[in-house]
Amino acid sequence: MRSSDIRPEPLERTIPGWWRGLTALHSERALVRHEGRSDTFEEIERRSAALARGLLAEGAGKGVRIGLLMPNSADWIVSFLAITRIGGIAVTLSTFLAAEELRYAIQHADVAILLSADRYLRHDYLGRLEEALPGLTGADGQAPLALTACPYLRGVWLVGTAAAPTWVRGRLGDLEDEGVASETFSEALLAAVERLVSPADRAMLIYTSGSTSEPKGVLHTHGTIVDKVAFMVRARWLTPWDITPDDRPIITSPFFWIGGFLVLACTMTVGATVLCVDEHAPEALIDVIRREGATQVSGQVPSLRALAGSPQCEPGDLERLKPQNSVQRPFFNKDPAIAPSQFCNSLGMTETFGPHSGQVTGEVLPHRLANSFGLALGGMELKIVDPVTRAPLAAGDEGELFVRGPWLMDGFYKRERREVFQPDGFYATGDKGVIDADGHLFYRGRLGGMIKTAGANVAPEEVEAAIRVHDAVVDVAVIGLPDEELGEMVVAVVAPKPGRRIDEHELKARLRHQLSSFKVPKRFLFIDLDELPLTPSNKIRKPALTQLITKLLATAKNT
Fold it and tell me: N or C: the chain end with fewer CB closer than 10 Å?
């Protein structure tokens, strides 16, 4: 059965209504496989209902912000469903967050309950939370937390097998058991709660890098999320690519980011099975492809090339795979007459819950539309304006992209609408682009120097601020340089104080405690202050610096 044969239109425009429809269609099908364990839709339904009742028993309800700090897993899916079933707001926290970033997100989001993994790969979240939240180590988990650093936080519940510190309220399983045992917070009460969840209610709070050191909290409603997932299933040629009930996609993109969440939700919608993996090295992914019969793998073209080039890859390992998204099409192309630029990409952002433009048909672009990002999708409106005057520009002129439409976020948390949206409802994306006379969008990069690395946004100002506090740094500039694998590589150009030497390894170690791992520069270049290209007011001219560094690196490579 193909995805077009599944009725993707939701019975209700809320996540509880969407989920009820899925369980009715797919109850006995496997929803997720992880580390050899399989969980069906019926099992996820049972667990999420129990957890939802447990959250109600703990005092949660509509509008309560509940933090979700876990890697891709059945527990993440269960937790997200439970939170949204009771009308709570799922604060989807990145597992990459360093201690200071984690404190900011928990505090800024006013998280009341935190559902957290104890560890994941090399990450120790118990230690990170203790570092992030002063006073936590002296707390008694049996009493509500009362921390001045995060005054709304009342309890932390863990997933995992590590010994729990005294400040932990309990395990996720304990919270599920509490829900099942409660006569007060019964199945009937949960059903009554779910009926009062509205499409207009806020469902997700997602943090994304801003243009300053403070990330932005993007709010989306139930109606937006359910509508977008239904559209993506119907569209078929965006992401996930032509998903069917028989597919078994490996989703390496985190569920807490929009790209990973959309693949997850669309896969659930058609009744396919999600494959979660902890280790993303090529040899580990090849093992899962063989063992689980995977049909798609997340990632950019360089990630797929790494799979194909792995010593563990044997003939036939990748033959069963098909694109998971439009970005991967050049890798699967067998026609040398078709250039990679003739495969339409899509363009989106957290603020529009994924793609706002793209191509919903699979045909190859004519040469005149090479490198196009397609047309506006699903009722979205796009326009190009002058970045300074905000006056609309003519077709073919380059300027800043503005967007408006049904998938636009409800707003930024703790920001007034007038600060975020234009008077006519458009949102300034910070993207540079051109729209031709027929409405085709051509992306030209970011305004303000935002770096896009491995699918994530990095604000140079945030990284610069973290480096600048080093007592031996007199000035610093963070730039993005083209990189085949990452898209852009984060590079820091540091000017030490005269007579001072900066140890690169020590600096990197310090930054890892302050920043998510993808924000820590991959390369550091140390040059004298007088070598930096400066304006008359002694500010670094980044375009000139980028040219200088590119030239220096090219010269070093050729010597």
Answer: C
